[in-house]
């Protein structure tokens, strides 16, 4: 049974950056629900994938050092531990992970043609299709079974989870391993980072909910890792139930313990999160209004999808955050979805023109602080809303 717990208002598509600001933009109600049976958290409104993931999708995994390093480390682990002869990545984006593998050992799936081009051009076999059973059948007849399937920040973007896992099972060899990586629900709650929710993030997994979902497909988690990426992610290691090669690790048991202790199986926990999110919104607006009264200027750092949720939920306009800056070519000189706030090309000197920097990409805080030491030295201040709105 799906129970409602938080309303994040009307939200535009989080990765639709417009060249010209339009007052009237398509917006969709973003409401969050908790399933009391399988404990899965999801959003209500489902937008067709074709509308969100088209041939202009701007997000690039290799735009940050943190992500590049995380994928490099993972590729070493995969090669050492699982030695896959044939591996599949669902949602290979611009190739941040697969470029660490030999071309004959890996195949990418990336429906956004502009991104798939990056790996195709480098000679990696890449299918620019959406993940579904039809594609899974096609892959099996062409390439046979896969002994490792990996997917980061993609499966939670697909509405039909049943088809997702049936299609994976169809392709996974008998002793094959599935590795999934997504933002962690417990970390989101602990940090009151309501901005993890936007129309692309249909689900936010926990170990508890994913275990319940996988049961239906005779798949089970045997290991888990907490990662720092995306503000706190979980990497789930999954196998077929009858594969006895791997036992449940202590790490996994600890994760379940922690999640139950925090109450990820109880609706009340999510109601508390909703009231914390509302308080966070009021506090952030107050900080920004105070800065405006002092006639100081704020720059948003990182034109993230997360920031789009914040701007539209808190109704933050150009009077409170003057501009954003980002390194992603397809975001530059465009406007933050739903808002008249222009994204400027990142240059080291850009921060000189502002007194405050709001961390849109708060999940890369360490990487950004290291890069922007001069801004702090000359008295500049950062603003973040995680785990609570504050200046530092
Ligand atoms: P991310 O947090 O992964 O985004 P989302 O919420 O959209 O999933 O994206 C980080 C964004 O911040 C991305 O557009 C690149 C940008 N960025 C910079 O412009 N400079 C930086 O130093 C870093 C680390 C990120």
Structure report:
The chain has helices at 49-52, 65-81, 113-121, 133-143, 161-171, 185-190, 207-215, 250-262, 267-293, 305-314, 365-371, 373-377; strands at 2-11, 28-35, 41-43, 87-90, 106-109, 125-127, 146-152, 172-183, 203-204, 219-227, 233-240, 298-301, 323-326, 342-345, 356-359, 381-384, 390-391. By secondary structure, the protein is an alpha/beta fold. The chain has a domain at 35-267: Rossmann fold. The chain has a 7-stranded mixed sheet with strand order 6-5-4-7-8-11-10, sandwiched between helices. Helix 4 (133-143) runs parallel beside helix 5. It is globular, with a radius of gyration of 21 Å. The chain starts with a strand and ends with a strand. The relative contact order is 0.13. The site of thymidine-5'-diphosphate has 19 residues, from helix 10 and helix 11. Thymidine-5'-diphosphate binds at residues 59, 63-64, 302-306, 326-328, 331, 346, 361, 363-364, 367-368, 371.
